[in-house]
Amino acid sequence: MITPEDIKKIKDYLEKSENPLFFFDDDPDGLASFLLLWKHIGRGHGVMVKGKPEVSEEYVRKVNEYHPDKVFILDKPMLSQDFVNKDNVPIIHIDHHPPIKIKGTHYFNPLLNDPKDNRPTSYWCYQVTQQNQWIAMIGIIGDWFIPEFAKEFTKKYPKILPKVNNPAQALFNTEFGKLVKVFSFIQKGKTSDTMRCVRVLTRINNPNEILEQTTKEGKFIYRYYEKVNKEYEKVLEEAKKKSGDKLILFTYPSLKDSFTGNLANELSSKYPNKLIIIGRDKGDKVIMSLRSEKYNVRDIIEKAVEGLDGYGGGHEHACGSNISKDDYSEYIKRIKEQL
Across the chain, which distance is largest between two alpha carbons, in Å? Predict the structure, then answer.
């Protein structure tokens, strides 16, 4: 867990910051974490870190552009030491992936105190703010965890989220799942378009504005979601055709949008006893999302990637990997041998 004392420290850093800069991951957990902190103080700038696990040295230009007094890094598992060395303001890094050791940051991760506690970053940001529970719920359940306050949310919004037993039910059998998709799909497309959606989201105060399109902001967000969802559904139908005995392996050409994580999550819920590998060709690499309720995906890919040109990692049952096309066949072969 992140201790109450550390939660207070994060809150103090946030509330005393006059011009914070937030770097956040391009998934519902990362987006919800940003929205929770930004809406709590109503100031600062957000930068979505798209398509890569690391906040690298290249993002120093954003620090130079916005001149923040504090930098918050949310739900990013990797941070470049070069970025830290060239940044001249305090860095508050909140994450829930396997801990890293970087000098010069204020680092908060529940796994430091309990190796089994990987509750999402948005969970901890909600502990800091205690506001906008609906946003926290989207980020948390979108990262496959049901928080203890889910019953409170269900009582307030029973039509959106009836009682469920696990995250998969919430994500794929309820209106709440559509909200998670909205948070995911508005991060697809050009960065300028996605950040416009994020800015619009800061002005939305309850989930019905989106689902029922009761405000102009809600209508704007829902229309963007619908456009992306049409493309997603086409790719999903193709992926379903690739089901094997123990494995679903599906790769698709690089489109303007990446759906690897979304496809892997949805297929994993439909086929819980299989390993799901969704890959996207991108240049000389294959970028993959891997999911399984049955197998320890992290252990499998750590063994499979050894000695190959690429990398992979993440959680026990949900990981990402990036492998050169030259090594892709060997990588898949090694994975299959472990099933």
Answer: 56
